[in-house]
């Protein structure tokens, strides 16, 4: 791994790094209406203090890495609200500033918790489409078009002081290749890449995980690979397969045990017993997971349970 990998200091001290949990659904739980194509990026415009508070609550729960509220924050998305690129990039930078401020506030309370990281979220082009395409990957752009879309956000996140990038919820090998190429324009940048899945051996566009690893393996700026925003029960088999393909640390942050009903736009408990992140932790660790957290519908309580196990 690269000498300036920001994960090294944490992974040298402990078996895994605790990531934070859901941001958008936690904002919804606190009263935000995110029925909007901008999703959590809408709150950057309307109520940034609440984003700061969610980050702080995750740090207090034991998270060691905050993922910024920039998943759906792009100049293309903000343009629909009349914002130009400079205004959009200022909001993207604000997402980093909020996470950094929360980190500073928490370290005043618990200075021994250092080091803590801020990962700049880089959501896929499919998130901008706001039609569920991040779970299908059924969109086609050239590498140049992908990079024109992602470049302003990546630049803004890094300039604002993100420690690394979370290129997350990626459904498309073509997009992952483009992002890997884009990283070379920012040689000091480091990133993890995490994917949505069709099944335990394929990402959402149908590309085999083996092909994904092969495409990315020679990029030293990619410091971890993994999966996120998938159902809990799909995680372990995919991690085990991925662990057989790459020596990189693996990242996993799935959704809660609930199920999303697209028709009613609501979450519901499954009919069978819902397990928790903590329940899967031993299997994930055995499968090589080193960065572990939660995605949609997970909470500070879920992250606190992971943090307690790390310290046990």
UniProtKB/TrEMBL annotation:
The keyword Iron does not apply. Its EC number is 2.1.1.10. Its cofactor is Zn(2+). Residues 5-310 form the Hcy-binding domain. InterPro entries: BHMT-like, HCY_dom, HCY_dom_sf, Hcy_S-methyltransferase. GO terms for molecular function: methyltransferase activity. Zn(2+) binds at residues 229, 295-296. SUPFAM superfamilies: Homocysteine S-methyltransferase. It comes from the Bacteria. It is an enzyme of class 2 (transferase). The keyword Methyltransferase applies. Pfam families: S-methyl_trans. NCBIfam families: PRK09485.1. This is Homocysteine S-methyltransferase. It comes from Franconibacter daqui. The lineage of its organism: Bacteria, Pseudomonadati, Pseudomonadota, Gammaproteobacteria, Enterobacterales. The gene is mmuM.
């Amino acid at each position: 791994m690269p000498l300036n990998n920001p994960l090294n200091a944490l992974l040298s001290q402990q078996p895994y790094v605790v990531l934070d949990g859901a941001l958008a659904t936690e904002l919804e739980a606190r009263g935000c209406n995110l029925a909007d194509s901008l999703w959590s990026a809408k709150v950057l415009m309307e109520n940034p203090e609440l984003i700061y508070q969610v980050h702080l609550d995750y740090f207090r729960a034991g998270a060691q890495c905050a993922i910024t509220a920039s998943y759906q924050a792009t100049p293309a998305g903000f343009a629909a609200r009349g914002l130009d690129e400079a205004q959009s990039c200022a909001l993207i930078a604000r997402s980093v500033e909020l996470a950094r401020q929360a980190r500073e506030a928490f370290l005043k309370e618990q200075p021994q918790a250092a080091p803590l990281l801020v990962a700049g979220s880089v959501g896929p082009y499919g998130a901008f489409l706001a039609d569920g395409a991040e779970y299908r990957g059924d969109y086609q752009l050239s590498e140049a078009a992908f990079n024109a879309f992602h470049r302003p956000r990546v630049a803004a996140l890094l300039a604002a002081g993100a420690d690394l990038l979370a290129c997350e919820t990626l459904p498309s090998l073509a997009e992952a290749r483009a992002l890997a190429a884009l990283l070379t324009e920012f040689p000091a940048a480091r990133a993890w890449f995490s994917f949505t899945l069709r099944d335990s051996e394929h990402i959402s566009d149908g590309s085999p995980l083996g092909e994904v690893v092969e495409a990315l393996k020679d990029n030293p700026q990619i410091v971890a690979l993994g999966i996120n925003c998938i159902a809990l029960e799909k995680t372990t088999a995919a991690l085990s397969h991925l662990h057989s393909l790459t020596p990189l640390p693996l990242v996993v942050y799935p959704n809660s045990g609930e199920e999303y009903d697209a028709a009613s736009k609501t979450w519901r408990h499954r009919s069978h017993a819902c397990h928790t992140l903590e329940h899967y932790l031993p299997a994930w660790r055995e499968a090589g997971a080193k960065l572990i957290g939660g995605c949609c519908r997970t909470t500070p309580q879920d992250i606190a349970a992971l943090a307690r196990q790390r310290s046990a």
